[in-house]
Design a protein that fits this description.
The protein has 151 residues and is mainly alpha-helical. It is built from three helices and two strands; from the N terminus they run H-H-E-E-H.
Length: 151
């Protein structure tokens, strides 16, 4: 029993170290924000985008767009319903999410490129400064030799 409790403590300690690491917390925050964003996009598609399209198509409600197939196997059962209207709404949601993610990734890539350029410029400045220091050291050494030979 004591061994089991020690094992639980080790597991608890390891799990705590894992969960507190920045990557796991960042991932959890990303999932929460992603879920909230998904709900917003679904509401946008279901409540704002598809109703005007339905109006343009003659007052069609996308949620109610279905195909009913008669159940030939079990005659006493209700027909099979294919809800292609909801599928169309899901495709629109997917396209919006893909569009947004494309711009997010493009922005992240741009920031990384800018950071890389800035680091490259800083490295180039360090190299230029170090070259100047080398030249100044050589001049100092030449002046020291010159003063020691004169004196």
């Amino acid at each position: 029993m004591a061994r089991f409790c020690r094992c639980c403590r080790n597991f608890r300690h390891d799990f705590k170290a894992f969960a507190v690491r920045g990557n796991v917390v960042d991932l959890a925050i990303g999932i929460i924000i992603g879920t909230a964003f998904t709900n917003v996009v679904q509401s946008l598609v279901n409540d704002i985008i598809t109703p005007p399209f339905g109006l343009l198509l003659g007052g069609v409600d996308f949620v109610n767009l279905t195909i009913k197939i008669k159940n030939f196997v079990y005659q006493d059962q209700p027909p099979v319903v294919i809800r292609y209207g909801k599928f169309i709404q899901t495709i629109i949601s997917l396209l919006i999410m893909a569009f947004v993610l494309f711009f997010v990734i493009k922005g992240i890539t741009k920031l990384r490129e800018l950071t890389a350029r800035k680091q490259q410029k800083e490295e180039n400045k360090k190299i230029e400064i170090s070259e100047e220091v080398k030249v100044l050291c050589q001049i100092r050494d030449l002046l020291a030799k010159q003063s020691s030979t004169e004196g």
